Amino acid sequence: MTDPGSLFTGTLCDVVGRDALTTRLSEEFVFADLGAEAVRSLLTFEDLNGLLAACAPEPPRLRLHRDGSPVPLDRYTEQGTASRTARRIVRPESLYRELRAGASLVLDGMDRMHPPVGAAADDLMRLTRERAQANLYLIWGESRGFDTHWDDHDTVIVQVEGTKHWQVHGPGSRPHPMKNDTDHSHTPPRDADGGLHTVWEGVLRPGQVIHVPRGWWHTVTGTGEVSMHLTFGFTRATGIDWADALVRSLFAEESFRRDLPRFAAPEERRKHRHELVARLVELAEDADLDAFLAERDARFPRRTSFSLPWAVAEDVPPAGARVEFVPILPPPVEREGERVALTVSGKRYRLPAVTEPVLAAIAEHRELSVAELAERAGVRVEECARVVSALSRHHLVLVR
Predict the structure, then answer these.
(1) Could you report the per-residue pLDDT of 136-157, keeping only the tens digit for each?
(2) What whole-number distance in Å separates Cα of residue 13 and Cα of residue 16?
(3) Runs of H (alpha helix) within the chain
(4) What CATH class does 4-234 carry?
(5) Average of per-residue pLDDT values in the chain
(6) CB of 338 within 8 A of CB of 353?
(7) Residue 139 phi, psi (nearest 5)
(8) Which architecture, in CATH terms, is 322-399?
(9) DSSP state of 215
(10) What's the pLDDT tens digit per position in 10-23?
(11) What positions does the domain JmjC occupy (predicted)?
(12) At 350, phi and psi to the nearest 5?
């Protein structure tokens, strides 16, 4: 059984090659058969039943679609209260009825509800260095939840139960379409006879994975039996993001904060514009892509997680306690005099130099016992435990 925390960087890369998921990512369709056993630990119906009961997700996080349209909420939910707050409560018998009638259930943010899916999403984020989210899609019969469509983000689809029929048509009339775009007349690719072009067609079975790039049209239908799959979606940095960062940097420029000379003479307005353009070009030339991406990585968010009681108690964790590295992307650790510095989720940490070997070891291995961490860091167990205790208070590690 595959560890969900290495599903993409390990198992999938071993099958299709790392190049397919890095340098060729977002440009080509990818299919891989990992085998049902490789995804068995991700999600089962027992897991899903427990999540629906314990987390009680409500619309729009949980929603139903049928034949390309949303199912009205009053067909499967009712008004209720929780902690004196009004909310929508899913009625189990109504949900069953709609699913039997061919509705497709969508549950967003599975990575925040179910640790194995969260571990797989984190692994994908380390591979792509972009934020990712996992959504669940569940359907019975031969119906479809959505019409032929394209997504404004890249997707990796993992079939976990049953089968589903896919037609991937390829990129449409607008290369690299975006969610917030100036042209929404994006149409699917067609063959000479006017029919939809097809890049790949097949039935996904448990353990099979496909990558559908952003903007690629696809048609998905049931096969007559149950289908449950996870869609891992991620949005990659574009030139728009680089330009947006450049624009934000203009607040530091006096010439750009100054009022435009609306009522000045035409020659003075032309001169002012020339000065703005010249400075903008100069700043753009200095706006290095590597520096932009490094700064973007430094703002990469952490998952919400807690490490009680160790982050509060005065006691240090025992040698057998498990230590887990919190940052999804391993941050560069820099020397600043007698201290080491790192930036996580946009916050700069300056820590004693004694933490450096411990940070390096836990960033590489991600999860170790205190004793194992001490051995790999080359420090005494007692010293390692004190460092772990301090790191937990900064939400850099979790202690289990």
Answers:
(1) 999 999 988 899 999 999 999 9
(2) 5
(3) 13-16, 36-39, 45-55, 92-100, 115-128, 239-249, 254-257, 266-286, 289-298, 356-365, 370-377, 381-393
(4) mainly beta
(5) 95
(6) yes
(7) -155, 150
(8) Alpha-Beta Complex (3.90)
(9) T
(10) 999 999 999 999 99
(11) 103-251
(12) -120, 115
